[in-house]
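One such shown below:

_____
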Amino acid sequence: MGKSTKKRIFSGIQPSGNLHIGNYLGAIKQWADIYADYDSVFCVVDYHAITVPQDPKNLQKKVIEIAKIYLASGIDPEKAIVFQQSHVRAHVELCWLLNAVSARISDLQKMTQFKDKSSDGNINISAGLFDYPVLMAADILLYNTDVVPVGDDQLQHVELARDLAKRFNHDYTNVFKLPEAKILKQGARIMGLDNPEKKMSKSVKSELNRIELLDDPKVAMKKIMKATTDLGSEIKFDIAAKPGISNLLVIYSLLAGMEIKDLEKKYTGKLYGEFKKDLAEIVAEFLTDFQKKYNQISDKAVLDILADGACRAVPIAEATLARVKKAIGIS
């Protein structure tokens, strides 16, 4: 069998919190739509999850849950590598090597997510939270990644991976490919239902912020009906003037496969209540179908898929790691 000529994509999600439709529409749906056109590698990034406290008993359950969500979204493990990050030791080894020879404290101090999480001056947060962008760079670079499908909030991390790769290639030898980010024009940033000025988040305390992928469809419908809208009654896409209805239009468009301009025409002269009722039904239909697929996948099947995925990932990762070690003189 000949070597694949397809470009490679890599991405992953942490097994923490409850994934929501923002995660699905901004990332996972994108993976499922394009993965067959690439040599695809998808990871459950459990080492990233432990940069903040996790319940050890719950962590492995969450790993299985995330993998099931990948599969229920349409990713075929026969056509893509799906694995658990901690099962491939090269991730942490390359992270250390990049820390030692390429990463700079000045790089990490610029990272937006760290600045947000440390803005209260807390010096007792873990060093891993500061350094995890280097681990993310290692995740990407290990697999000779061409394309990283991400939400727009992750662009900075892909840029860091590129910067570290360039620095290493300049200082030693040309080992790393320079990955490119791939972002959806719409859906890359689904906003909170209760606050359309901020991104939908699995870490926000209020459950009214998000529609979780494993929400009861009836609960999800109620969340849509309670979603924040705007002054006036016109159903029009205008992020600056009407962020609430614009966010709901994006969700509607992506789940129903309709253009926003067509939705604007459909609801001309109609009120928010009718629009939200229709959207609630579309969300419920999506969740019902998604959860049916999710519940058909057994935990044992997932564990077998993750084990097989790790076996397929290790040779690729180890080959890259060997080239890095040789370049810096510690092979």
